[in-house]
Amino acid sequence: MQKRIIVGYDGSSWSHDALVWALEEAERTGDPVELVYADEWPVLAPAASMVPSPAVRPESNAAQVIDGTLSRAVEAARKTHPLVPVTATTLRAHAAAALTERSAQARLLVLGGRGHSAVAGLLGSVTVAVTAHARCPVVVVRGATPVTGPVVVGIDDTVTAAGVLAFAAEQARARKAPLSVIHAWPPVTGIWAETPMATGTVTEQERAPFDSQVTLVRDTFPDLRIDADAVVEHPAAALTRVSDGAQLLVVGSRGRGALRGLLLGSVSQHLLRHSACPVAIVHDRLAMS
């Protein structure tokens, strides 16, 4: 079965932004697009019935509202992108669980930057959960989506960097955009700040693995313009800075944190909140496959 681009869609403005981004991507790749709406009420209703004043949803109307919202979105998408096959599906499940399970059938999962957060500036709980557990790369559409500018990728020296870099190179080639590769080393702080270790520069020995990775992708994508920069700066700060004007920011995630496997890495979480452009998260297990 052909892999598809799946869009988490709930009729909100940020899910519409995600749909527009996905349609543009599908025009480049030839993939079909599927809108997925998670109807959480059947899952939440039993718990709601336990409170003194149970919440009531008019079931006769609910299906019509959901179907109408999805039908209008599909119709509009077919008008603006007539060559892209577009369908819609409603799943009765928690949004995060539904999208994570559906991602096993996807080449790419696209979400809006707000998710289920009612507070401006906070990352939605659905977005956090899905980006942490999806079985395909996830793009979170936020900030500006310029049609010019580079694709930026942040890498490190781990074995997953090659896969993250290859994903970014494919994105740049499809867009006919330059690729900007960034490796940021956090500055030396604390008790080491006044020692010779705190040079503020990247040595040739330190950047040798980075240069090798860049050389490999240059050989693999000979027609792609590639700029490489090794800097001494916190990775989150460096990548947030270069996201301004970029078409897409690509990073890997190993899910490190106090609850490994439940949380994204700190750099990924920072970028999902502060990047000036859409962010693609490629997990370690996907980058190594």
UniProtKB/TrEMBL annotation:
Superkingdom classification of source: Bacteria
Pfam entry (one): Usp
Residue span, UspA domain: 1-142, 150-283
Family of this protein: Belongs to the universal stress protein A family.
Name of the featured protein: Nucleotide-binding universal stress UspA family protein
